[in-house]
Amino acid sequence: MPAAGEHHPAFEEYCECIFELREDDLDVIQARIAERLQVSRPAVSEMMKRLESEGLITSDDGIALTASGRRLAETVVRRHRLAERFLTDVLKLSWAEAHHEAGKWEHVISDSVEEAMVELLGDPTTCPHGNPIPGTGYLAPDSEPLSTIAVGDGFTVRRITEELEFEPGLLEFLEASAIQPGKVGTVTALAPDGTLTVEIDGRHVGVGSFASERILVSP
After folding, report:
1. CATH match for 9-71 among 3.20.20.140, 3.40.50.150, 1.10.10.10, 3.30.360.10
2. pLDDT > 90: percent of the chain
3. pTM for this structure?
4. Is 184 within 8 Å of 212 (Cβ atoms)?
5. 144-218, which class in CATH?
């Protein structure tokens, strides 16, 4: 069974990317992988061949992780999200800083360090953005995009999907605006361009359509 550290970090990055795209119900295509990882499409094409030769993906009916590839991805994602939780809860880093640093930590955390982090953090089930930590058995509550909430209705933030974590400046905005898992708010207005105004923590905040379609909430 492959685990983090048994493959080149690039293999881990690609398997993690495929896992997270599937998690967000996005089609896994080479163009989307290239955009997420900020690499060229020829580089992605070459890596797909290498991953397939390693038995980590199949490409017969679209790009999909094999059982081995999924185990590797889950290990990397688990360590990334544990690192984010440690960096925000213990070291008090911002969401954006923690996301950046966790991208480095995920490749070097050992089994013993992972166990120590879990114990210190009290066996967390989600990252700071509400995304499930693989291996915890966490079942996320039913949710829907913020964009579906009608003006005047309330909501509870559940998840900030991974897609939003890669948008420059967005994590900083969401954290500063208290649009965080567990926070309760109300949609107060809808602009013609799709921008929602929400009241949360006593403040009114405008949320563009790209973000509101990817912030998951419970009505």
Report:
1. 1.10.10.10
2. 92
3. 0.91
4. no
5. mainly beta
